[in-house]
Each structure stands twice: as C-alpha cells, then as structure tokens.
Amino acid sequence: MTFQYTNYKVEVKNLKYTTDNGRVFPRTAIVTLLDNNNQSVAVELFGYLETEKLYKMIDKNEDINLDHCLVRNFSLSVYRSDRGLEKKEYVKLSGFRASNSFFESKFGTDFSFSEFGEGDLSFEGTHFAKGDVSFNSSKFGDGEVNFSNTLFRDGNIDFSNAIFSSGDFNFKNSVIHDGKIDFQYTDFGQGLVSFANTEFYSNQVSFINTNFNDGEVIFKVARFKGGSIDFHFSKFGKGNISFERTEFGDSNVDFRTVEFNEGKINFNRSVFGNGNVSFEGSQIRKGKFSFKKAKFGKGNLNFELTEFDNCELTFDSTDFDEGDISFHNSRFKRLSMKSCHLDHYIDLRVAKCDVMDLSDTIVRDIIDLQPYDFDVDIGLLNLTGMRLLGRINIDWHSNRVEKMIKVQKESTYRQLAEQFRMLKENFNLTGRYNDEDKAYIQFKRHEAKADLHESIKRNPVNALWQYPAKAFQWLVFDQVGLYATNPLRVLFSMVVSYLFFSFIYVVLQLFSTASIISSVGDPDNLSTVQRALYHSAITFLTIGYGDYYPSGVIRWVSGVEGFVGLFLMSYFTVAFVRKILR
After folding, report:
1. Pairing outcome for strands 283-284 and 515-518
2. Which residue, 512, 492, 499, is CA-closest to 555?
3. Which residues of 135-170 are buried (b: 16+ CB within 10 A; e: fewer)?
4. Looking at residue 521, what is its pLDDT?
5. Residue 505 resides in a domain
6. What are the tens digits of pLDDT across the range 153-186?
7. Which of 133, 296, 325, 391 is the most exposed place for a label (fewest CB within 10 A)?
C-alpha cells in the first residue's frame, strides 16, 4: 500500500471479503486514497470487522487475526469501561496480529495496558490513518514485534512504559507524520531494536529513561525533519548502536546523562541540522564512539562532563559549521579530530585525555587548552600537519606541552619540529614570549635531529662529518645560550670559558716553556695564577693593554680565546637585546 496520499475515504459494502490465505470477512471495506487535489491515488480492499465483535473475541480469549482488515475506533479503554474493569487493568490479547491492515479512530486507536501472548506480533505494512496510537504500558511476549513498513499518518504515538521480552523490535522503513512519539521508560528486551530507514516528520521524539538492554540499536539512515530528539537518562547495554547516515534535520538532539555500555556507537556520515547536540554528562564503560565524516549545522555541540575514560571518541574528517564545540571537564581515552576544519571556538579543556589527535586540522578560530579551574591532563597531543590560522590558548608549564608532544612514538623528528615551530609562532602572537622561547628551543633541537637523520638516510657516508658538525652545533648554539633565548646562560658560559682558558694558561706555564711576560717589568709582582687570570681577562674581553704578552704556545691559545670572547660577547648582546625588545 502506498504512503503517498493526503486523505482517504472509506465505503463499507455488504460483500464478503476473502483474504489470500482463505480467511473470510462478512463485509468489505473499500479505501480510496486521495492526493492533494482529492484525486484517487489508489484503491485498496480490506475485510471489515465491527469493533464490538472484536471485543467479544477478546472476552472469549480467542486468537485475533486482523490481517488485511479495516478496524474502526478500537480502544481498550472503552473495552475496560464497558466491561467494568479497572482503568489500568491489563487486557490479554491472544494470537494477535494485524499485518497490512487499516486503523482509523476519531479518538485514537488504544492498545494501552494490553498483554500480548507469546509468539511473533506483526503490524507490518499497517496504516494508522486517523487518530493517536497508544501502546502505553503494554506488555509484549517472547517473539518479534514487527512495525516495519507501517504508516502513522495522524496524531501522537505512545509506547511509554511498555515492556518487551526477548524478541526483536522492528520499526524499519516506517513513516511517522507530525506528532509526539513517546518511548519514555520503555523497557526493550534483549533483541534487536531497529528504526532503520524510518522517516520521522516534525516530531517530538522521546526516549527519556528508556532501557535498551543488551540488544543492538539501529537508527541507520533514519530521517528526522525537525523538532526534538531526546534520549535523556536512557540506558544502553552491550549491543552496538548505529546512527550511521542518520539525518537529524534541525532537531535539538539530547543524549545528556545517557549510560552507554560496551558496544560500538556509530554516527558516521550522520547529518545534523541547526539544532543543538548535547552528550553532556553521558558515560560509557568502554568501546568506540565514532562521528567520522559527519556533518554538523549551526547549533552547539556539547560533550561537557562526559566520562569516556575507556572510550575512543573520533570525529575524523567531520564537517563542523558555526556552532561552538565544548569538551569542558570531560574524560577520554582518546579524542581524535583528525582532518577537521575547526572554524569556530572549541573548548578542549578536558579533565583527562590519554591521546588527543588534532593532526591535519585547519584552525581558523580559537582552540582552548589552557587550564582555568581544574588541571587539563593530556597525555599525548598530536598537532602534526595542523594549519593554524587562528589561535591556541595553551600554557607551556600548566599543559606540560613538551612532554605531551615528545611522547609521540610514530611521529618523525621533522614532524615534532614542525609542531614546536607552530607553537612557537602561536606563543609569539599571543604574547607568551617565555613559552615562545621554550618552544623555539625544542623546534631547533628536533630540527637538528631531523637534518642529521635525513642526511644519513640519504647517504650513510654523511655520518662521517654530520656527527661532528651536529656535536659542534649542539655545544655552541644549544648548550651555550639555548639558541639565544637565555642571556644569563650565555653570561654563565662566558665565565666558564674565561676560567677554562685561565686554567690552560696556568698549566702551560707550569709544564712547558710557554709563559706570560710583563713588558713593563712586572711592577705588581703577579704570581703565575694571577698572570693567567689577568691575561685571560684582557684577552677574552679583547682589551689588550699590552702590559703582559704571551710567549710560546700560549700565543696560539690566546688567539683562540680572543675569538671565543668576541663570539660570546656578541652572542650575549643578541640574546640580551632580544629579551629587552620583546
């Protein structure tokens, strides 16, 4: 039966109707399906059974087969009232089935507080054409409950407080028009729960406090056209959960304080509209949570206070629109946003994250990592290939930047160097000049290691001169002054060099024919150590009074010291001026 109609009309004829399996109804219902112009789309024939006869079958506890039947104004509330039963007294429906049927009611089709027996229950292909539909507080026996390919054309749907047993619950390929869809406090069994390819119009869909137990839950390729989708406080079991390629429209999607268990949660390629999406306070025991290649609209995405300590949350290649993204005070085993475009503010001040992967991202706004009112504990931060057009709020010491970058086992020295270089430029733009210096030091160190390893990899013979050259660079540029970032360290290196040359002069005077000679008759009568210290000072500082001059091998050592002194004084001037100018 087609779903494409906007109205219908029913004629009941006093003609027998025989179904394909040989069941005979005393009357025939002719249902004409109409389009917007009140033109016929299709004509369907059904058996017709008066509602009172149906109630009598319930009285006798007979099996009820309504396949290919038109049912009008069926209501267990009316049945209980007529039979003098309590309003919430359960009514047993034996052998019930209603596949490819047609229900209509002015006041709503009511199966509330019904108790279905064991075996499969099928409403497959059925149309609920007029009025609300209620299965409130119903109990379903062992076996499949099948609402696949069903049309809910008019009114609300209520499965709240329903209890399902061990069989599957199948709602796939159904179409639900405008109205409230209520599965609050529903307890599904251990079987599959499937809303695959189901089409929800502008509805309020509620799974608040729903228990899905250990069966798989599938909303794959489902389509929501607006309204709200609320899974607040619901509980999932060990089965996998799939929202793959689900279209959420402009709905507000609420998974706050949801308890996930051990299954894989799949939102890959799902499409969110301009509504807000919240997983605030949700928990998962362990597993994988994936949003690969998903698309988000202009609403905010909220993962604050989530407890995913043993979970990998993945947003690789996801498309974020204008909304803010927050992982504030959350806990993850791994958080991956690889190859994403981050064009708006994102709060990554997580309470704990073993691995955070932001590699190959393009950042045009602010990434916030700097601790404020709690410690931001990130074990490993991967920024490989990031194009930083915005800013990263991060603190070298509080975020333990050096540690969380250097622990990357799979990154090359070149990749590590590029990450430190990017952070150096970021610290410069944000005015964190001390942090800039620390990042610059790590950049130059890893760049030197990368040059060394790449040169030797190209030609192993290069090791003969690369190792000595890199050792010299390490000593002069790194250890002496930390790449001109620390003038005090350069000053200390100057003092050490001065004392070193002074010691050499003492040794050479005691154990060789070399000496330091006074050109003015040594009026102060300096000792060997004093002459060494004085000569080293005027040589190192390039003063050259001429009152003492070297002889022998000390001449050549003095020349070296003069060069070292000139170099270190220049080095100190550069480092000092660099600090002052910033």
Report:
1. unpaired
2. 512
3. bbbbbbbebbbbbbbbbbbbbbbbbbbbebbebbbb
4. 78
5. yes
6. 988 999 999 999 888 999 999 999 988 999 999 9
7. 391
Mean pLDDT of the chain: 92
Q: Choose among 306, 310, 355, 298: nearest CA to 326.
A: 306
Mean pLDDT, range 12-34, rounded to an integer: 90
Backbone angles phi, psi at 367, to 5 degrees: -105, 120
Angle at 205 between CA 199 and CA 209, to 5 degrees: 135
- What digits encode the pLDDT tens for the residues 342-383? 999 999 999 999 999 999 999 999 999 999 889 999 999 999
pLDDT band for 545, please (50, 70, 90 cuts). Answer: confident
Dist CA 53 CA 13 (whole Å): 17
Distance CA(176)–CA(179), nearest Å, equals: 8
| DSSP letter assigned to residue 522 | -
pLDDT at residue 581, rounded to an integer? 78
Residue 315 lies inside a defined structural domain of this protein? no
Instruction: Count structural domains, the chain.
Output: 2
Our CA angle for 272, 273, 279, nearest 5°, is 50
Find out whether 300 and 323 touch, Cβ atoms under 8 Å. yes
The answer to whether residue 44 sits within a structural domain is yes
Distance CA 537, CA 333 (A): 59
Residue 227 lies in a domain: no
At 300 the pLDDT is 94
Highest mean pLDDT among 4-8, 177-181, 276-280: 276-280
Give pLDDT, residue 44.
Answer: 93
Domain that holds residue 509: 487-581
Give the CATH number for residue 544.
1.10.287.70
Contact 190, 213 (CB under 8 A): yes
Structure confidence at residue 362 (pLDDT): 96
Statement: residue 580 has pLDDT above 90:
no
Is 495 exposed, middle or buried, given 0-12, 13-18 or 19+ CB atoms closer than 10 A? Answer: exposed
Gyration radius of the chain over CA positions: 40
Bridging pattern class, strands 265-266 and 287-290: parallel
What is the distance between the alpha carbons of residues 160 and 183, in angstroms, rounded to a whole number? 4
Rounded alpha-carbon distances, angstroms, from residue 31 to 173, 390, 555: 22, 63, 117
* Three-state SS at 338: coil
- Residue 20, CA atoms < 13 Å, CB-side half-sphere: 5
Task: Take residue 297 and report the two structure tokens written for it.
Answer: 């609209």
